[in-house]
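Troubleshooting entry. Yesterday's outputs looked truncated, so today I'm pasting the complete records for two proteins to confirm everything comes through intact. If either block looks cut off, that's the bug. Protein one:
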Amino acid sequence: MLPEERAIANLRGAPYAIGDEEIAALGEFFRQLRLIDERVTAASPTELYESQWALLGIVSRSYQLMLCCIEQIAAGNWNGFYAAARGLAETLGSVAWASESPERLNALVGTDELRNKALLDAARKKYPDFAGTYSVLSSIVHPNRDAHLLSPRPGSQRIMTPFSLGFSDHFARQKVAILVDLGPSITSELTSLLAQGSDIPKRGRVMARLDFSSD
């Protein structure tokens, strides 16, 4: 079983009323991500270019963060979900920013620190709901009132506990809706970026290559 299949199975098994349509959308996101990986890798299977590294890095980051988001929903981990989901939103910002000018891809794997605002502004400009989503995610990631979630302990000698996990059906569906919005946006941006030129995965310096001299 692939990691994404396991994560989705865990979400199905969680005590939340998540619809089949939403579950299918998450599965399709992973399918598209694997297709993009194959396409980018096929452009240069034995030499790794800077732009290819950036593209595959976006795929890897999207894959791992989406897995994390799904697993945190299944586990009912409030703060864990928001931390991973904000990272996923920032990934959308990075690929939207690179899509505006493919030459920017190399900067994603450069040593100079990128201005996060520029990446987020690219996503805000293209996706009207992005600003609101990112603001909500950030409001939980940063230590403030909403981030300090406690759960009641009815019938216990203590009034609240920090060690209880779980979402209501409403909140679980709300979290999945964020993923169903962010995921396809990322794969769509990657697809549009690659459509701007067949050479896009082979730009910049060669960073690594397979050595067949000992074969």
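Protein two, checking that the full record survives here as well:
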Amino acid sequence: ASIEAAIAHVKDQLALNADQQKMFDSAVAQNRAAREAGRTEMLRVRDAMKAELAKPEPDLAAVAAIADDARAKGQAERLKVRGNWLNLYGTFTVAQKQVVRDHLVQRLARQEARHEKMRARFGDKG
């Protein structure tokens, strides 16, 4: 369960103050920008793969290096975005934190119930 999704999901229950709302809006905008940057990076990888496959002897190591670079950039962006959400969470009152916690507890319980249902249906294979 992502922290960002949990906070965004319960936003209406949090009664954010003006500063928290600004932080929330900034985090949402950064989230969108990071997603768009990730799409751009994946297009770069795809285009590199197409270009290499058009060659008689494609250099797959070059494509792998581009893919690794894209993955590293994406990870750095995700950590930056998560940091902003955690900074916002750090400004929450105890009551606001409890709202987020309760949502995460419910989410985990639903997830565990689904996993149990799947295990029961398909058998536990490890």
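Both blocks look complete. Sanity check on protein two: The CA atoms of residues 38 and 74 lie 6 Å apart.
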